[in-house]
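Z., the sequence and structure:
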Amino acid sequence: MNAITLNAIGNHLNTKIMNFLQVEPTYIISFEEIFWGGILVAFSMGIHGIGMLSVLRVNHSINKKFSAKKNLIKGLWPIIFASFMIIFVHLTEVLLWSLFFLWRNCFANGSLSFYFALNEYTTVGSKFNLPLNWRLLEGMISITGLLTFAWSTGVLFTLAKEFQEQGFVLFTRRHHKN
């Protein structure tokens, strides 16, 4: 082997070792990150609270309006409508985070910012990361998503329970007539 070949092999091995040992720059959590993360979590929870109360109110109004003409199919529509309302509330919260990321120049455009926020909020994750000085928010948005999905599940469970109880009453009435 000549010197050029040995030098090329050495450079190749050096590159492989350096890639293997690649270390991210030092990350230090900042007060600014904690402050804005707390604000975003608080606003998200506030939006969610108002949204879930709205879902329950609208569902109650719909059920009250159509209670005289109740059947199983008509009873299902309020739950479907409530599901769409819940999804809208979640997307509004994702939009809040996305707008913050745009404001802080974390992403080049709104589409990428919303995509990233949605994936982090649902804990799916993505191949994109926030700049190093905002990394803590990746975990905070995921925690917010977990909390709000649990809350939404509770609301939907309440509505489904009401629907099933109404369905049982209708079933009982129908079978006791005969």
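The chain is about 80% helix and 0% strand. Helices lie at 3-20, 31-65, 72-103, 110-121, 136-177.

Let me know what you think.
H.
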